[in-house]
Write a structure and sequence with these properties.
The structure is a homotetramer of 264-residue chains.
Chain A (H helix, E strand, L loop, with lengths): L1 H11 L8 H24 L2 H6 L1 H25 L11 H7 L2 H17 L4 H7 L14 H10 L1 H26 L10 H12 L12 H41 L12
Helix pairs in contact in A: 1-4, 2-4, 4-6, 6-7, 8-11, 9-10, 9-11
Amino acid sequence: MNTFRYSVHRALDADDGGTAGIERFIDTLLIGLVLLNTAAVILESVPHLHLQYARWFAGIELVSVYVFTLEYVARVWSAVEDRRYRDHITGRLRFALTPFALIDLLAILPFYLTLGGFDLRFLRVVRLFRVLKVTRYVKALRLIQQVVRRKRAELLVTVGVIAVMLILVSSVMYYVESEAQPDKFGSIPETMWWGVATLTTVGYGDVFPITPLGKVLSSLIAVLGLGLFAIPTGLLASGFTEQISEQHAAEQHANFCPNCGHKL
Amino acid sequence: MNTFRYSVHRALDADDGGTAGIERFIDTLLIGLVLLNTAAVILESVPHLHLQYARWFAGIELVSVYVFTLEYVARVWSAVEDRRYRDHITGRLRFALTPFALIDLLAILPFYLTLGGFDLRFLRVVRLFRVLKVTRYVKALRLIQQVVRRKRAELLVTVGVIAVMLILVSSVMYYVESEAQPDKFGSIPETMWWGVATLTTVGYGDVFPITPLGKVLSSLIAVLGLGLFAIPTGLLASGFTEQISEQHAAEQHANFCPNCGHKL
Amino acid sequence: MNTFRYSVHRALDADDGGTAGIERFIDTLLIGLVLLNTAAVILESVPHLHLQYARWFAGIELVSVYVFTLEYVARVWSAVEDRRYRDHITGRLRFALTPFALIDLLAILPFYLTLGGFDLRFLRVVRLFRVLKVTRYVKALRLIQQVVRRKRAELLVTVGVIAVMLILVSSVMYYVESEAQPDKFGSIPETMWWGVATLTTVGYGDVFPITPLGKVLSSLIAVLGLGLFAIPTGLLASGFTEQISEQHAAEQHANFCPNCGHKL
Amino acid sequence: MNTFRYSVHRALDADDGGTAGIERFIDTLLIGLVLLNTAAVILESVPHLHLQYARWFAGIELVSVYVFTLEYVARVWSAVEDRRYRDHITGRLRFALTPFALIDLLAILPFYLTLGGFDLRFLRVVRLFRVLKVTRYVKALRLIQQVVRRKRAELLVTVGVIAVMLILVSSVMYYVESEAQPDKFGSIPETMWWGVATLTTVGYGDVFPITPLGKVLSSLIAVLGLGLFAIPTGLLASGFTEQISEQHAAEQHANFCPNCGHKL
């Protein structure tokens, strides 16, 4: 039994660098199923496709949920083979709370909740979050994750600065423009919709100032917005440079003290 | 008296790294009140909420102003405990002119001006600048501030270059397009509204050229705009890299070989 | 014969740094013809120019195809002078499958396919891919290519992250907005059109949310989009820095002290 | 005479770091006059201001042209004091062809051409190029200029890549969309207007695809556009980093050979 559980653990664990046929096959199968399922959920939302291929969509869904449930149970059951989750109960529980395990749970939960009496439309949409299952297999995501984590504090502050800027900018614009366009700048929350469109340079064109002062303000804010969004870009650029130069340094320079030759 | 004043100073000063319960409690209370107040001012601008919850909004405002006034008075009064503002009169005055103290004053001033006969609508909007009070507590803002200050001259020049570009571009476009669309490109200032929307790539869609030459120019300017706004991003990226590598250098230069004590 | 083939090979090969008059002349002629031809194909698509100058366009096309065919045949024929493609049959075949040779083939194929019974309109458009022939002559493209190749994995992952984000964001927005605007958010694929316009900040303005919740979501997504697109910029910025510092390092590591010859 | 000419040269030359009162006064006066004049030309284009303040605008223009003409003549006359332009005729001619001298000429030429029978409206617009005269006084522009010059080749190539991409993308889109919207995608040049709006993410909203295939293509191109414009940003970011680290290196490290102490 234990040996079988260990094999299951190894077969599912994408991280241990195993290149045995069975592991690759399982990975490919699961990735393929996730992508097929994602495509099916997207297409199912198109009314005429929904009517025409209802059976196909239901079939893909059933098979997917069956396989993903099996995968989830197998992962939780075999998780105790991992040193970190050795304990049969608390170990498995801690494993079940890891991000990847939660994504796996999220992938099957909507189906079982549908069997209860929950809001069907919402659950159908939630099914699309299954696509996050593929992130498990993408190794190159790590550099990006490391850099984002390294700059987390500054990135969050930037979001805060953008939020504060949005509040100030929208309050001033509300004062300037609300009389000329009470239907579009009628309150600060409404004005914020213009603020976001301008700061992010999306500019849908449904809301824009028409008074001269409003246009001057809007211009200043659009320029300011580009300046603001230069901050996260600069942060990430410097983060990538640091992360990679540290990795190089760690690899290349096994430093020694030039005086006594002691390895540093 | 002096001991109490010192306690007040320490309890309010977020910078001295104190972790005593009372300081944390006061910080949390003030941040919470600022956020509550900001939300209230934003929601109060929505007409039907204004009617329905007028009492709540007035209550939050009164309590906030009371607390913020108390905070301001306490800060100015206890400022003399700080070495930099020792003198009872000029010290407090210099403290009152620091950016954070001015923001604190701005947070309470509108209320007292309202009691006089000033423009209510404008003062209501100014109340939102209270949200700047939270910047006092965000430590991670410093790196961004340092980098912006380090590149101040170049960032200002970039703004100047953008302004000059906007003037030139709008004057040419005015010449090209004013006959075809006299209502939208009828003068250089009016044409500048198009210029900003194009250079910043906001593109609301209320103004755009319709003549072939105007479209060619507009295309060149949109590309140029993206190039221009690459300058501040590049400046900030290089600024973050420098700032952090200097901090690393400052940290590492103090290193010694752990074996022989030779300075590295 | 062999000597002539070698001359042809040298005359056509832009890479060997030859500065002989004939090579320069051929390069200039071919670049000029590509640019002339590109301009002609673009202008030919304008109906009234097509009618008026049909003869000229046909003439340019005929001459171009004749020259480009000659060039292609000469390149394939003389390719065996290059060490890498020595073999008369497999060498030439391998040469014919290199990106530049494929572009050269693509430049003449449409003409010959037109002589068969293929879709004329499509082939006319394909003719414009001839413009890619100029990339052969642009040496400065290499740094950009090297950096993109160096960061290939991360750039691809970023595209993947954008795709996943687009799917999730569009599915949630479909749920939120489809009842209010069934004509524009009627299915997830339709909602994706809004998703792209928002994430990329293009914001054409044909589709935008009108419900308050939709506007809040849209705002979050626009900010997120700018954050996402900061990743490739940061990657490229750090890539250029690395690539150039490596080139410097490679140059400098060969330095010696000019006084004592000690290797530095 | 010579001594007076030398004084004029020194008084006008912003570059020799002189801090004498007269030089500063002249600089401030000229900058002020340029800014006043720019404001006047911009406001003069507003019809009702033009009518109301015609005299003022004419006055500012006359004074400006008089001063700028005097300045130009003085600069050309005293240029021979500069070693580089010693010769009385060819030296002054070469000086007159430097960028700054050409800008100074451009600032006064429109007025004298107006006295001839030239197109008034165009010349009025050209007057705004006077604003470029201020660039002479902005020292912080140099870092930006150095970095742009350092990366010139790659930046130009990026512009080329964007142009090629625009041509290919527009030709394919023309094929896909011209039947559905013959008025907006009726030829490749017309489609390029959409192409620019999408690649640069300006998205005015006057032209966008309505066919499903057109929307898919447009989405891909918007994402590609953001990737393309990440290249100049990355180039500039790495350029600023290099430029500044070279300046640091030049300042701080007077390197010595660690073997013999020879200065490198």
